Automatic annotation (TrEMBL):
It comes from the Eukaryota. Residues 17-367, 374-634 form the DUF2264 domain. This is DUF2264 domain-containing protein. It comes from Piloderma croceum (strain F 1598). It holds the Pfam family DUF2264_C. Residues 521-545 are annotated as: Disordered.
Amino acid sequence: MNSFHSDSPFQKNQLKTRGHLEKFLVDLLDPLASYTSPGGARIHLGHTATHFDETAAQLEGFSRPIWGLASLLAGGGSYVGTKRWIDGFKNGTDPESPEWWGAMRDRDQRMVECAAIGFSLAVAKEKFWDPLDDATKTNFEAWLGGMNDKQMPNTNWLWFRVYANLGLSKVGSSRFDPKRMHADLDHLDTFYIGDGWSRDGPEGVIQLDYYASSFAIQFAQLVYSKVAQADDPKRSEEFRNRGQQFAQDFVHYFDGEGRAIPFGRSLTYRFAMSSFWGAIAFADVELPAPLTWGVVKGLQLRNIRYWAKQPGAYYPDGTLTIGFNYPNHNMTENYNSPGSPYWCCKSFITLALPSTHPFWTATEEPYPKALLQTTKVLNHPLHIATNLGGHTFLLSSGQRCSYPVKQSAAKYGKLAYSSAFGYSVPVGNGTLEELGGDNTLALSDDGGETWKCRRETREARVENGQWLRSMWYPWKDVQVETWLVPPSKEVPLFHLRVHRLRSGRKLTSAEGAFAIYGQRGDGRALEPSQGEDPGTFEQGGEARAASRAGVSGIVDLGSDKIRTGKAIRTDANSNLVVARAVLPTLLAEHGDSDEDVWLVAAVFGLPSTPENGGAAKGWEQEWKKRPIVPREIAALIKA
């Protein structure tokens, strides 16, 4: 009976064809009807708040599904509920209407929602603009063009004004401001740092998360390159080239089951993480081997299939929840309204393509064999991505959000991020159970009352082309230097972490492995292992947990063996992927000596697969292996 209500509303959709994808979109749009205002301009999906006003939140609910609807209509499809959005354009932009969206001010959330609206005019003018009467068109263009003289954040937001002007240009509006649009594009080009990568802001910003790809920048560049190709051919070609280069790195963020590695903010956008691959197809960008059209199709559709089958991503009526794999407000940002998750509708952009497009005519292919069992250093985001041993994850040092964001230490500062195990966020600050300290070295100077985790990483770099090295300064008299070493082919399921701790105060440390599903097969909480039953294991400087999700563990390899292993049952709803998790952890006490303390750990991770429903046979032998500290790092330890 534990699973009698656990199916997703979209469980039966195979999501393999264009028709399947269209049905999924329609099934997402239909439930919105009962949440739509009488005039169509607002969609109210819940009562949780954001830092911006409620009208803007309900505009968000209205606008974000347009990414999918406009794509469907642009590709020759139809939707019986389209009139709801046409009515919404009329009433939302009319100052005399009770559903008026309100005039835009500087740095207004309404600007974000202009992106989808501008896109709809650019690709489906005949469906959204042409049916409007002259008075409505006048109001519409005045409202949309109202952002041209307003201040905007110096981030990916500038793309939203580009798209507003792009839409205005395609409908022949006098409110189109070409000077403003090209100035914005020129400035956005200053974010570019090479090899296809752009940071989300000016020099000094070291934020290269999904906003640098599917959520905003890469997606926007690729769609612009198609829609504006005739008017801006040189820039369009440059954007296509960037997309081609970026794809060769971005593919390493996906696994064979379609999951993308959770990293950074705004993860409630879910399968928007794969919209880059749809934008590649929309822009007709052919990629180098092994990224064939069949591979691109597989990357996109497997990700959407994965999310269509996650029951916690949807309410029973088919509307989206706020969270990741289940409703979870601990991981959200203060700009996440109930309508925010519909940013995922960007991934329906392939519906704008004809059925004869190579994306749709190609036979779907699995994740490329040539990219399996590989490790790749990604210099710009300061990531090392690997899928050795069947575990897709990345090591990370050097990124942080350039402005205050809830749980930013968890979203950017962890040592590793996994496509299978996700990451955890704190639900409090009083105990290790509340901390959700997976893949981090947590430090306490008050005996475990409160904890600090890495947030602002400094002096981060790739060293010897093989590992990451960085510094962290949690207090003025405490320094932590960290080396992160990816798995080797000889020991593929362990990665190495080495920390040099120098402290002027007494500290408690807790270093976590990957958090893992923490229940037994009968649904009860994991208990210490007995016989063949999966469970937790604690012995000396080792801790491990095994369940239907696979195995996670951590081993102290330090010469003085000062750390004790413990499998901590984290507080519910801290991990993004599973609501009940166990975290293998190493614990130690440290004095205030001026001498360096070296902490060396091997971290084990082996996810389950759909075929085995748990850790693959033979994992115990892999667990007995131990990685070797590279001689350059070993020499520093001995010095």
